[in-house]
Fold Vesicular inhibitory amino acid transporter.
Amino acid sequence: MATLLRSKLSNVATSVSHKSQAKMSGMFARMGFQAATDEEAVGFAHCDDLDMEHRQGLQMDILKSEGSEEGGEPPMEGDIHYQRDGTGPLPPSASKEACSELSGQGKPKITAWEAGWNVTNAIQGMFVLGLPYAILHGGYLGLFLIIFAAVVCCYTGKILIACLYEENEDGEIVRVRDSYVDIANACCAPRFPTLGGRIVNVAQIIELVMTCILYVVVSGNLMYNSFPNLPVSQKSWSIIATAVLLPCAFLKNLKAVSKFSLLCTLAHFVINILVIAYCLSRARDWAWDKVKFYIDVKKFPISIGIIVFSYTSQIFLPSLEGNMQNPKEFHCMMNWTHIAACILKGLFALVAYLTWADETKEVITDNLPSTIRAVVNIFLVAKALLSYPLPFFAAVEVLERSLFQDGNRAFFPNCYGGDGRLKSWGLTLRCALVVFTLLMAIYVPHFALLMGLTGSLTGAGLCFLLPSLFHLKLLWRKLLWHHVFFDVAIFVIGGICSISGFIHSLEGLIEAFRTNAED
């Protein structure tokens, strides 16, 4: 009887596992075009984490069902998207065996072209609308920085992936780590085995939340400038946008959101083409004499953060490379995606700035004539609102996993009940996060300043500083002298740019905050 019961439970668990993988992994990994079409591409990387966590939870159900033969209670079945174990995580050895056993069962892989599509959407999203404003304060040096940032981010992406691999006893190069957090923890071990991961998680949360704030800011800004005659302020438009976004607190998965991602991205490319076409139609009036070699010392550091933020993709690269059919094509994929991004961003920024010169605004579509501005901006607002759930959902999951579901190391009680459903106070925290993004957007409604601050703080850290530092720490014995030189140079230059941009952006934000508080 016990053997029959165990066989039945195993068959049921296997069936559910296959269904789960078909729904989650199949949807996000095999269909690469829907995997990470958001600007920060958090959908693909994060859904991979959720898929592993889900499969780990299913394995826990199997172990619990085996234990129930001896008199224990059978496991409760909850929503498959939020299946959680209420008693704590698996032991390290069992967890690794379970994950490795289940992860190899029919997990779909993506091609180099699909991986390139994900990277392209990560580094060529709607935040390129702020690049002409960077040229306004940087001139030709701003154009050079767009090229320089592309080269550096491409290089740091490659060395970050190199940190995932080590040489085994047989002299073979094998993958021993799976994520950015694993790399960070390996660098801080053995004295502080979890410190590096916590730093990366904090940086990731800051970047994701700031991305959400930017979506609310840009939505309010675009709507206000599209309908200036309406008696509705930019703050009011931001409140309306947040009311539309409040249902994000009830999200259980990204399935519904991902359906719109590809359409939104294609619409954004069409909008970029329309802006460039309009600028080309005014080519006779281009102000070449306005593009200078000198820089605005006070505002150019903010431009550095804007440019760096537009290239951030390192946080999801380990997951992306691990899901490629042929990981050896990763370097080639990084080359052509960053070359294409560099060319398109440089041309877009230069052409737009030449068209409006000193009148260039923080969001370039605000410079368009009123006849087409409203239509273009409405499409952009729709894209921003549909893109908001991706970074929001990723930020929520990182917070829940690190603060509420980290086993004995969790700071707070589990926010999920025994049936796997979200508790009321957990839902309240989600709503509070949405409201927090609104408050930040209301008190600091400056797209360029917020983008520059985020790029200088987390963007430079995740793209410049940490990859070069980790590369030196983990592989310094095998590095050639020019690799050491590049890593040290990137770390020093990135540190200087990060500190400078952060200070100037913070000063601008404090001044803006005071002005809005007085009003």
